[in-house]
Amino acid sequence: MHCLCDKTLKLTYADGEGHCGYQCQSCGAIWLPRKFVQSIKHTYHFSYTDFIANRTPVEREVSQLCPDDGHTLTDYTLFEVNFSECACCGGMWFEKGELHNLLQNYQRRSSNISALDKLDFLNLLNF
């Protein structure tokens, strides 16, 4: 896959805002396949269904093509964040900082392990 800004630059698998995706090392944009967008629910109180239902289409003068399958991307906005989606594969393109801005609108799930979970883990290890 190649960057939408410069077709000569390959996207590399990277961690973007705590989520895996394919990032351009030059411009910082990130491509998230659909299953990666759906996995945001594991880190944030995020509903993919609500996300899709609440976004607003935006018209763009120049269309861009999906870096994965070459189909035309559709532009959207949600919470004043702009992103593009491929209607075919469901992947999403976020310019640098846009994914971070989007995630600021969702509450992060607690990553703390409860005391009971720790005890269960210790029991598993036969302590």
UniProtKB/TrEMBL annotation:
Ranges of residues in domain Transcription factor zinc-finger: 66-104
InterPro entries assigned: TF_Znf
Pfam families in UniProt: Zn_ribbon_TFIIB
Protein name, per record: Transcription factor zinc-finger domain-containing protein
